[in-house]
Amino acid sequence: MQKENYRNKTTIMLFPTIDQTSTVSSDIISMKNWRHADIHIAVGPIGKAAAVTLEKSAAVAAASTAMSFSKYLSTGFRLKYDGASVDTPAAAGETVTGAGGGIGYVYEDLGGKLVCYAHNGTTFVDNEVLTFSGGKTAVADGIQYDEDILVPRTASSDTFNLAAVANKEYVIPVDASDLGDGYDCVQVEIADCDTATHLCIWADLSDPRYAAEIPETAIYD
Predict the structure, then answer these.
(1) Where are the alpha helices (DSSP H) in the chain?
(2) 3-state class of 5 per DSSP?
(3) pTM of full prediction above 0.85
(4) Are residues 200 and 42 in contact, defined by beta-carbon separation less than 8 angstroms?
(5) Which H or E run contains 51?
(6) Domain ranges, ordered by start, for the chain
(7) What is the radius of gyration, based on Cα positions, of the chain?
(8) Helices (H), 99-205
């Protein structure tokens, strides 16, 4: 097993899991001493879909300037199939729907195996008919698996939605250079998720600017 070097990485909690009933503003992190952060949002039960945005600032006291970003990752899964009606792979972005109600979006069709994202939470059942939005049909070869993988996604207009589906994870990669001149702090904002929502936010910071026995802070600027 590869040993992780604690001197080159640190993890900080930005928002603890609670029964959230309104909007969420995470703690602000400073990237003054770090070149990269992977911001994780883990969602348990969630009342409704909610938009995620980032804000930036020059200090950890407050953040109010919208930050541009286009990349994030979300929980995905793999699904094997056979009996395809055509040999042509399904296109990225197509939906695949199982006869039992499972729905996912195709990230990649490898011919007999799908990599998907945005699962609606209903299990795909072995031997059920799969219908693709592009017209292709197939038969599920087992249930979905590898539900812990993270699949690359593209944010639209500097935002994306937490889906109203429980037990999902989202990751936003942020480089310090993405913040632009005069900014070195970033904060996560999440719209009202409604009642009975549990989520937490944390950041894995890596690539420190300065080598040190004890990593530099990320909660002070």
Answers:
(1) none
(2) coil
(3) yes
(4) yes
(5) strand 50-57
(6) 6-70+155-208, 74-140
(7) 20
(8) none
Instruction: Find tokens 């998720």 and name the residue.
Output: 193
The first and second tokens of residue 172, run together, are 């936003």
Architecture of domain 6-70+155-208: Sandwich (2.60)
Q: How far apart are CA 189 and CA 21, in angstroms?
A: 14
> 167-204 pLDDT, tens per residue?
999 999 999 999 999 999 999 999 998 877 899 999 99
Q: How many helices and strands (H and E) does the chain possess?
A: 0, 17
Cα distances (Å, whole numbers) of residue 175 to 79, 120, 133, 183: 33, 31, 36, 12
- Do 155 and 26 meet the contact criterion of CB atoms below 8 Å apart? no
CB 215 within 8 A of CB 7: yes
Q: What angle do CA 172, 207, 209 make, to 5 degrees?
A: 125
Distance CA 183, CA 64 (A): 11
d(CA 109, CA 23): 37
Distance in angstroms (rounded) separating the CA atoms of residues 48 and 196? 9
